[in-house]
Amino acid sequence: MRNTFRCSRCRAVKPVPSGTVGTGYAMHGTARRKVCYACCADLDRRWMERHDRMLLYMHTDEAFTEAERLHQLGLRTEPDPTSTYWIILTNWCGSLRIKPHSSGVGSHNWGLRRTSVWFRDHLGSEWHGYHIGRHTQIVHCRKLKGRTQ
Ligand SMILES: [Zn+2]
Questions:
Q1: In terms of domains, do 68 and 139 share one?
Q2: Which of 39, 75, 118, 122 lies most in the core, judged by the most C-beta atoms within 10 Å?
Q3: What is the pTM of this model?
Q4: 45-60 pLDDT, tens per residue?
């Protein structure tokens, strides 16, 4: 028998995948309710509409993985992971994916690399996020006032 769970938000009964890293659900909010990945993305979008701060996670996308593979084979120059082209931001469970439209790298006070990203949310509001160092994926994001189009 396959393991299933019921999403506490949309009430859908969904399978818990076996043998993969993901659990199929995320624990959301202070109540630690189980929600499916689709609802997790939805809740985070709602959050962005009502708040002006948000934590996202920085990754490089699949194209970067491919570019690195080509680099290993000597077929292209080494891709720079801080380039806007490769950066993808996600929510905690990975179901919300946001592509920044620009990025920049600077030095932080403690000599750590600070990467800035700018992106638009689903309603067109402009956000800025920053990421510090190499040992965390957390991006501290803040909605920019008066820039909504
Ligand atoms: Zn759901």
A1: yes
A2: 39
A3: 0.84
A4: 999 999 999 999 999 9
